[in-house]
Amino acid sequence: MPVIECVPNFSEGRRPEVIQAIARAIDSAEVTLLDVSSDADHNRTVITFSGSPEAVGEAAYRGIAEAAQRIDLSAHDGQHPRIGAADVVPFIPLREATLSDCATVAHRVGRRVGEDLGIPVYLYDAAAQRSDRATLPQVRRDRYEILRETILTDPTRAPDYGPARLGTAGAVAMGARQPLIAFNVYLDTKDIETAKHIARAVRESGGGLKHIRALGLFVNGRAQVSLNLTDFRVTGLYPALEAVRHEAAKHGATVIQTELVGLMPQQALFDAALAYLQLPPETDSLVLERRMGDLTGDYRPIWFE
Amino acid sequence: MPVIECVPNFSEGRRPEVIQAIARAIDSAEVTLLDVSSDADHNRTVITFSGSPEAVGEAAYRGIAEAAQRIDLSAHDGQHPRIGAADVVPFIPLREATLSDCATVAHRVGRRVGEDLGIPVYLYDAAAQRSDRATLPQVRRDRYEILRETILTDPTRAPDYGPARLGTAGAVAMGARQPLIAFNVYLDTKDIETAKHIARAVRESGGGLKHIRALGLFVNGRAQVSLNLTDFRVTGLYPALEAVRHEAAKHGATVIQTELVGLMPQQALFDAALAYLQLPPETDSLVLERRMGDLTGDYRPIWFE
Description:
homodimer; alpha+beta; 9 helices; globular
């Protein structure tokens, strides 16, 4: 039974009734709603859900439709760059499914969103139809206020589905990709420039670590380095955090706390633990619940007091 | 359905045919054999198996009987202190079982081992009948060569089951306890005294961390701090390793590698990762497979390339 995941980001993190309405719309399809994580500073919500490719596609459509009705991008502010009410909608393979299966879902949902909702759709990553849409930053290069103009005239801004025109719902970046980890690092300073310097140094586009995207933001009264780990098996949480700490030290800053946005694969946490503990990587096969599951089929966590 | 675990330590880590014979004897009962980990330097093997309390008790008895036939303690050498061929046999509750259930199994198996195999049995921890047997180190205070004499005359060495006399199989410490993590830390020095100093500083009995036992050994050509974490929810891998690194630095030594002996609960690895990553402790509820399992019943790990 194929299982895929969808992790849409919506440009609303402050009005609970809006967030709940979108979550309900998603949940009204035959999916498992896994998480709803909102951030008021970013004015953004990440919803995670899973199920069959068909059900997940339907749920994604309903969430996008609800968001389009409820969120007016022309009135939206927040720390995070965005292009739409439903800003990013990625599909991720989990079990017995491939990136190609997820790209098919992205195309199918994208077409419906473009044609039935009149929302421009940009297909990215494994769903991209153009080489200049291979990555999300390329697609999201122009934030809503800019895109509203450039979509009318710039051929590189021509959507894959839907009209070349932005309404109050903006546009949606829709794609297929491997899981991403959204990990925010809070520093012991209020200086946003420090966070920006660190972000530029650690991210791949700045000559830093591969598969790391980073932004420097001001959140909750502190400087924050907001990270996206786009391939945690190559660059995981351990090297990512070590790099941030290293760069922060150059600015006389330290990490006081971190947070995860949405969910993360178990393997990412195991990899970080094994790296920190200096254990051989194959030690994850010595996890009790994993060994019991492999031999009995019962993978349930065991609770010890 | 109650599930318990047994993690016997046998005083054989060099002869594969002996280790395999003991594993086969255990596996001949209705249990799930989870792991067999041997260490030639320690001349010791840890076998982990699980199942119903009745089956686990039966398997433990068969393993002890096989070890008694195959291992002659009077000819045994190795880095680790020991009292018997089957040296330590702990029972641990996993699902729908309590420490008390495990103590009952320890008593039942202990009586059979004492009466039918003629091997002295010392009940410890949650199975102890005497306050001076609350901890394993108390029970294992006299190694085989010493115990062979003291058991004849010292009333504090009177076994709970079996004769007050040691044969070539020695004695067995049998108990009920919570899970323990056996974690070895290799230093970049050959000086065993360094490892011993570090062990004395970090262990609870030396005024160090609670629920930490430690020994300094020489293994694989290096100094090794051998740790037992007897309550990882109170003192986990992160504070334990931080303490070892801190003490090692005082001696100009660093940790080059670590190893796990046997299995460890998933939660221990999660706790270590969250501590290192400076994430809030409740972040383990944001693990994808855990969240999916909680909502769908499917806790299987998801493999990402």
